[in-house]
């Protein structure tokens, strides 16, 4: 008598895990983003930081870290590299010198605008999806991430 394989294990069993699908999609995104960002001499985390600052200049390291879901010990070297490249400024807050505020230089704002002028369109094309479908998927994945972060912090 032969055992039949349960449906959950037909094909690649990892394909049954949402976490693996999200992970694999993240790796695929990185492969698509890399050549797009190489022309701007940016890494993906640097790109995200610049885009977040372009939306709101003068954020603190803590505020930006919360938006990017990264700790300050990860962000500090990233910001130092962006500052050395002339794209970012780091200044101590006048009311509380323990707080570091971040700002884009004119060159950083220009580079970010150039990247935003082509990278999102290229990513949309690479997905093969309609913008509305991609937005719906993004909303669902963002809600999933928020729920998981809430679960992990409680």
TrEMBL record:
GO terms for biological process: response to stress. One of its GO terms (cellular component) is cytoplasm. GO terms for molecular function: DNA binding; DNA-binding transcription factor activity. SUPFAM superfamilies: Winged helix' DNA-binding domain. It comes from the Bacteria. Pfam families: Staph_reg_Sar_Rot. Keywords: Cytoplasm, DNA-binding, Transcription, Transcription regulation. PANTHER family: ORGANIC HYDROPEROXIDE RESISTANCE TRANSCRIPTIONAL REGULATOR (PTHR33164:SF5), TRANSCRIPTIONAL REGULATOR, MARR FAMILY (PTHR33164). This is MarR family transcriptional regulator. It comes from Qipengyuania gaetbuli.
């Amino acid at each position: 008598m032969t055992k039949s394989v349960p449906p959950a294990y037909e094909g690649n069993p990892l394909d049954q895990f949402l976490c693996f699908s999200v992970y694999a999609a993240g790796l695929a995104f990185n492969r698509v983003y890399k050549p797009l960002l190489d022309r701007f001499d940016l890494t993906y985390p640097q790109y995200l930081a610049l885009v977040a600052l372009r939306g709101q200049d003068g954020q603190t390291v803590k505020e930006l870290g919360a938006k990017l879901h990264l700790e300050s010990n990860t962000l500090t070297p990233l910001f130092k590299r962006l500052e050395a490249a002339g794209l970012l400024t780091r200044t101590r807050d006048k009311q509380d010198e323990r707080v570091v505020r971040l700002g884009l230089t004119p060159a950083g704002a220009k580079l970010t605008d150039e990247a935003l002028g082509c990278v999102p369109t290229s990513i949309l094309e690479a997905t093969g999806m309609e913008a509305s479908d991609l937005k719906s998927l993004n909303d669902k994945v963002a809600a999933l991430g928020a729920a998981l972060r809430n679960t992990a912090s409680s």
